Amino acid sequence: xxxxxxxxxxxxxxxxxxxxxxxxxxxxVSVLDSGQGVVEFVRHNxxxxxxxxxxxxxxxxxxxxxxxLKAEQETAAVPVVVYTASVVDAEKTERMIESEPDTYxxxxxxxxxxxxxxxxxxxxxxxxxxxATFS
Length: 135
Known about the structure:
By secondary structure, the protein is an alpha/beta fold. The chain has helices at residues 12-24, 38-45, 62-71, 87-99, 116-127; strands at residues 4-8, 28-32, 49-53, 80-84, 107-111. The protein is built from five helices and five strands.
C-alpha cells in the first residue's frame, strides 16, 4: 500500500533522488527544503512517514524539528526517520531517543551513507502490522 512520505532536506539533489526512488515504489512524496513550517505541514497533510535530515542549512536544525514534531499532540505519532553523516549528531539523537522512549517512539536514526534499500525496508515495515514500530 502506498504511503505519503515527507522528505525534509536542504540539499536539492538528495530531495530529487529520494523523491524519484520513492515515487518509483508508488509512494506519494512531498518535499520541504527547510525545517521551517514542517510541523504545520504535517498537521495539515498527515504524512505516514517523515524522512528528516538532521543538518538543515536554516535557522532550525533537524533535531529541533524532531523535538517540535514529538511535542505536538497532532504530530507526535507520525514515524520519523532522521539521518545524518555526523557521528556526533547520530549519537546525540540516539541518546535522546533512548532517554525518552515514549516521546520518541517511532523514531529511527540512519547514518549516512545509507542505502535506499535501508529506507525502503523501514517504509515496508510500516505496511506490516507486526513490524509497524521500528524505534
